[in-house]
Amino acid sequence: MTMGTCSTQAYGEAWYWDNRYAHESSPFDWYQKFPSLAPLIHLYIPHRHHPVLVVGCGNSAFSQDMLDDGYEDVVSIDISSVVIQTMRNKYSNRPQLKYMTMDVRDMSAFQTGSFDAVFDKGTLDSLLCGNDSRQNAVKMLEEVWRVLKDKGVYILITYGAPIYRLHLLRDSCLWTTKLHVIEKLVTEESSEHPKWKLTDPVPLDDDGSNVECSAWKEPHDVHYVYICTKDESLKAGPKHEVVVE
Asked: What CA–CA distance (Å, rounded) separates 208 from 194?
């Protein structure tokens, strides 16, 4: 997949993922694993007892790793009933890990303001690669915004550069947004001498067209991490707004 475009797939359909997970049993983490993202997670979710939602969890070990790191209330959802049953069976001895079959575009099973944080590693990107991509992406973002508490954070890990993602965020909900970057392939050597400190936000303009890219060779060398904070105080302004910090 490139930074802005991808080939259309049935990524928004449950049957596609049911079929895929029926034939792929090995755990797989999209984009980044928990240890590489842990410094950001600790920065933006310092309280381990706050409820956290992981969307499009698949068969990733991410939720388990959060629990092992001390987070006490982790709920994971996926559109595939096949993978959810697999994860329930796998972690049947760990009742703190909750797995639910759910479409991220309709999370009506959750009350408004249920979570302090929502993690997304590739789910939005998958919808943007599917049919009716823009409509489905906006539905997802509106639901994520709804289930977050005010000042809760949506942590979006994506291949999408700001010139593409900021417009989508602006058109969906009321966020205060920060951008971080992380190298795609984090080796022991690169983690000791990173080109850009993960916990330092990257300066960017409102339209995302002037990101400071001098810290890495090519934009495709990194994943982008958007920290989107739900801010109901912005309701007094325009209907849809992204405040870039």
From this structure: 23
CA distance 132 to 24: 26
Taking the C-alpha atoms of residue 84 and residue 103, their distance in angstroms, rounded to an integer, is 12
Which pLDDT band holds residue 188 (cuts at 50, 70, 90)? very low
CA distance 89 to 86: 5
Half-sphere exposure of 36 (CA within 13 A, CB side): 22
Q: Tell me: pLDDT of 131 over 90.
A: no
The position carrying tokens 């990194």 is 222
Q: Which pLDDT score, from 0 to 100, does residue 171 have?
A: 82
CA distance 239 to 189: 46
Q: Is-contact 244 166, C-beta < 8 A?
A: yes
Q: Residues 6 or more apart from 23 whose CB is under 8 A from it?
A: none
Regarding predicted confidence, which is higher, 82 or 5?
82
Residue pair 90/67 in contact (Cβ under 8 Å)? The answer is: no
